[in-house]
Write a structure and sequence with these properties.
Shape: globular
Radius of gyration: 23 Å
Number of helices: 23
Helix content: over 70%
Structural class: mainly alpha
Largest sheet: 2 strands, antiparallel
Order of helices and strands: HHHEEHHHHHHHHHHHHHHHHHHHH
Length: 516
């Protein structure tokens, strides 16, 4: 203790200087404490106290985030453990807005005896962990953030467990997540042993990776990807997704399929931007591993989705397939060029929230999530199923939706990298991405096919929650408008990547999309 006494003053000064950078997260922490108090003492008199406090806390945190975004100043704080730049601020804003919509979703779908105040507190805890993931480049902070999100997710999945299927889903999630966390922690200990530094973008850390034995560094990187792979549910760490997505309440499935992926994709993109910029063994090894994982994830996710007859299970495999597209975007991310990745993350959140809101509305009315039960319902609920179909078209990547623009921008970036480096792996990514987009058309269109072209044999009727239907319509309209608003992006790529638009590959994509 005496050895550290000369440094205590400087430590305190560093913390005090860093606190203003942490205002959005401090707001979430204070709101978390307030919700605990409200759920204990206020909710019994006013049952919407915790919900109102949660919304107010998220909005106030968003105001601080907006201030950070408008300042356009990069900030480093807490002993170089967090780096706040425009990319991190934009990603946190997407996370916050998605959490806000899902919080309203939770409040509108409360059909259980258990109080919602505790669940709101858990959601805020997960949001805090996700914010830390987008800001941190320190492995210790990253692991704490990952575990914060993981433990919060375990609680959310098991919170409303009322039957064997839901309890089994929660147990599988906890066991698989715990194993992946332990493997990741062992990999991080190896990285620290090789480098003696916990900041992955520090020159000494990268120099240590260069000097480490190739076999051991390969093992450490694979162990590291285990924890990241669990949160992103890419191959081969995707096996938990279908059971958990199907067994958890739909509103919790919405959160798991959307918000954590945004933060982990941002973290992975920063990691690869720092490491792939170095021309050395570990950077080449990591790039090829990510390419192989992305190809396998797209193929397995989309091919498995073809066989599914349950909407939530189908969306689980769809989410796995989209993770492959996100990995494509991560591979071509470069510092100060985050627009394409942020755009796709935004529309990914909108599309998933809308889809699960529609699935939930149908589940409440029909009592199940079977696609066959949607037969003939398009005539009874034309607004719901028309919006549902538009969002599914966006997930496929067909014009005129933002899904098409997002995939086009990602494919263009990957093709640009292929032209620069002539990497067969990048070409394989493009081909598999195009093929799996075509494959996705066949399982997504099962829903409008049943809804509009088949008869309602069982005479079901659909009663939608007006507020949730309004959120679903808002997301649908946003997906369309974002597609049109990004015309300037398309013109930019047409101007600067005419070679891509005129290649056999792009013509191959158009042939499949329109020929099918």
């Amino acid at each position: 203790m005496l050895a550290f006494s000369p440094y205590i003053s400087s430590f305190i000064d560093q913390i005090i200087v860093s606190i203003p950078y942490f205002k959005p997260e401090l707001t979430l922490i204070i709101t978390f404490i307030g919700i605990i108090i409200a759920s204990l003492f206020v909710d019994k008199y006013w049952d919407k106290a915790s919900f109102t406090l949660t919304i107010a806390g998220l909005l106030l945190s968003g105001c601080y985030l907006l201030g950070q975004g408008l300042s356009h100043v990069e900030m480093v704080g807490f002993f170089d453990m967090i780096h706040i730049d425009t990319f991190a601020t934009s990603a946190r804003m997407i996370i916050l807005l998605s959490t806000l919509l899902i919080t309203i979703f939770i409040q509108q779908r409360h059909q259980h005896d258990r109080p919602l105040g505790d669940l709101y507190a858990v959601v805020l805890t997960a949001t805090l962990g996700l914010n830390l993931l987008t800001m941190s480049s320190n492995w210790l902070m990253i692991f704490i953030a990952v575990e914060t999100v993981s433990i919060s997710s375990y609680i959310m999945v098991g919170y409303f467990s009322s039957n064997k299927v839901q309890s089994e889903a929660a147990m599988k999630y906890v066991l698989f997540g715990s194993i992946c966390a332990a493997v990741m922690l062992y990999g991080l200990s190896l990285l620290y042993g090789f480098t003696g530094n916990l900041n992955f973008d520090a020159p000494s850390h990268i120099a240590g990776l260069m000097e480490a034995p190739k076999l051991m560094i390969s093992i450490a990187l694979l162990f590291l990807l285990t924890g990241i792979g669990f949160k992103l549910s890419f191959f081969p760490f995707h096996v938990w997704s279908p059971d958990v997505y199907q067994g958890a309440p739909t509103v919790i499935t919405t959160y798991l399929a959307t918000v954590p992926k945004i933060a982990v994709v941002v973290l992975l993109s920063k990691l690869l931007a720092a490491w792939l910029a170095v021309s050395f063994y570990f950077s080449d090894f990591l790039a090829y591993v990510i390419i192989i994982i992305a190809i396998a994830t797209m193929l397995i996710g989309n091919l498995a989705a073809l066989r599914q007859q349950d909407a939530k299970r189908m969306m689980a495999y769809s989410s796995i397939g989209h993770t492959g597209i996100l990995l494509m975007a991560v591979l071509v991310y470069q510092n100060n060029e985050s627009n394409v990745l942020l755009f796709y993350l935004s529309i990914y959140a909108l599309m998933n929230i809308a889809v699960f809101i529609f699935i939930d509305s149908l589940e409440v009315s029909l009592g199940n999530t079977s696609i066959d039960s949607y037969k003939g319902l398009g005539k009874q609920s034309p607004l719901l199923f028309t919006s549902f179909s538009i969002v599914l078209i966006a997930l496929i990547g067909l014009p005129p939706t933002a899904g098409f623009v997002g995939k086009l921008l990602i494919f263009s970036k990957v093709f640009e990298q292929y032209q620069n480096f002539q990497s067969f792996g990048l070409l394989a990514l493009l081909i598999v991405g195009a093929l799996t987009s075509v494959i996705s058309l066949f399982y997504y269109f099962k829903i409008p096919l049943n809804a509009f072209l088949r008869d309602n044999v069982d005479h079901y009727s659909v009663k939608s929650n007006p507020l949730l239907l309004g959120i679903g319509l808002f997301c649908t309209i946003a997906v369309i408008l974002l597609g049109y608003s990004q015309t300037s992006y398309c013109l930019y790529f047409k101007k600067h990547f005419n070679s891509f638009l005129n290649t056999w590959f792009f013509q191959f994509i158009l042939l499949f999309l329109y020929g099918t």
